[in-house]
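Students often ask why we bother encoding 3D structure as a string. The short answer is that it lets us treat folding as translation between two languages. Here is a chain of 138 residues written in the first language.
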Amino acid sequence: MTRLHAKPCRDERGAGLVALPWAVLAFLTFLTLAVQAAVYFYSTSVLTAVGHDATRRAAFGGGSPAAIVDAERWLRSAIGPAVDIERLRWRTSGETVALELAARPPTVLIDADALIGLQTVERRFEVRRELARFAGSP
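And here it is in the second language, the structure alphabet:
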């Protein structure tokens, strides 16, 4: 009975030392992109929720300048320093209070605009004004 042995064509010792750094670099790159996308989507969700709540606060105050200043102060404190607010524009009409919000979410180690197209978040909120009525008032 004869034994069959595969003869190695060449010595492959040390080949993993060349491939491993490239694999680690690719893994870390994809991990960074995934973390950046998660931060972007979380920031978008927070900006949407906080913007709607701030508009609702201003509308509940009747849309007065004092209510808008209070709502804007609350909005800035709720968002925090990580998000850069580029534009905050309030508008009041007869029955509505509107807010236009544009902000740039934070980035993680990379320039997200250039790499994956995650740019400024722009939202518009419009809420009907509410005036508190007490029992027995017209």
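Translate back mentally: The first strand starts at residue 84 and ends at 92. Keep this in mind for the problem set.
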